Amino acid sequence: xxxxxxxxxxxxxxxxxxxxxxxxxxxxxxxxxxxxxxxxxxxxxxxxxxxxxxxxxxxxxxxxxxxxxxxxxxxxxxxxxxxxxxxxxxxxxxxxxxxxxxxxxxxxxxxxxxxxxxxxxxxxxxxxxxxxxxxxxxxxxxxxxxxxxxxxxxxxxxxxxxxxxxxxxxxxxxxxxxxxxxxxxxxxxxxxxxxxxxxxxxxxxxxxxxxxxxxxxxxxxxxxxxxxxxxxxxxxxxxxxxxxxxxxxxxxxxxxxxxxxxxxxxxxxxxxxxxxxxxxxxxxxxxxxxxxxxxxxxxxxxxxxxxxxxxxxxxxxxxxxxxxxxxxxxxxxxxxxxxxxxxxxxxxxxxxxxxxxxxxxxxxxxxxxxxxxxxxxxxxxxxxxxxxxxxxxxxxx
Length: 397
Prior knowledge:
By secondary structure, the protein is mainly beta. Helices cover 0% and strands 46% of the residues. It has no helices and 28 strands. It has strands at residues 5-11, 26-31, 42-47, 51-56, 61-66, 80-86, 95-100, 104-109, 114-119, 133-139, 148-153, 157-162, 167-171, 199-205, 212-218, 222-228, 239-245, 260-270, 272-277, 281-286, 291-296, 311-317, 324-329, 333-338, 342-347, 362-367, 374-381, 385-392. The chain is globular.
């Protein structure tokens, strides 16, 4: 069998965030025709409100979509870029991970440094608040003495975890999503921000955890941290911690009792191997390949039945799925790659981000039939758009 790698995309595309050379929504997965030379080397694809970052295995980063606040990192303010363009500012750097907030972006280098670009209206770039936005990646100097392992971005806040397991957060902290109390906020002497609404200096989060934090996940107004008791950064013993808003049960705590948590809380979950946090919902893969969901359910994003109140705070299994290999998602939709090479999607589908022609919400996991003859290697999402890296199975002539 010959390998032929393609990137396909679908969903919301009003800013060209699908990389399809136009700005019309795409109802079902369509091949991106101008990426052939990149196909064998895609490491990840992720998006924000209307932009996308494509990371290659060699450490290069490409971007497309909405650039109104410079979130593409191309050094310009041209609004809609409909094809993937290289971020030339990273020439000479090897990028190992990227993350997208609503209208800003983050990148971690192989040396553990963090760069940010895009909107800084809430200090989400970790840069002085007088900088309204940046069209080029800039080093977050407060973290330059740390060796950062991974970053995460929510609506208007962000976080970083270091190789030693320390967690830093910055940006909008009004709902407790930074995990710090007002009296803990240490402002930069050159900064004009003095409240948790706009924190432009990364703050260290005080965490009492089992093992070591190795990954972060940011939602609308909440943050989750995954620990590893074995200290190898990926294990079957993952424990979950969370802070910020819990009005929709996104912290897996009863919102009638806990509406939010400023200080990190240990959540009643174990053996978590990976997860995706949407705006107000969470889907988590267990070490056994099962999928759990909790939080907001207005659009069917939990993939299971839920009370009329619109949320389920207690984690429960999403039934009917084979062994889950990978999860990804946007603000209100999800995708799960399962054994047998099946890609399932569900949730908000107004812009066809679930990959089905009728733009009605999908309330339980449904296989994307148009991808059934392709080997799915990787998936990724923006707020309302979706991607898959596929190997088109083709017999040698």
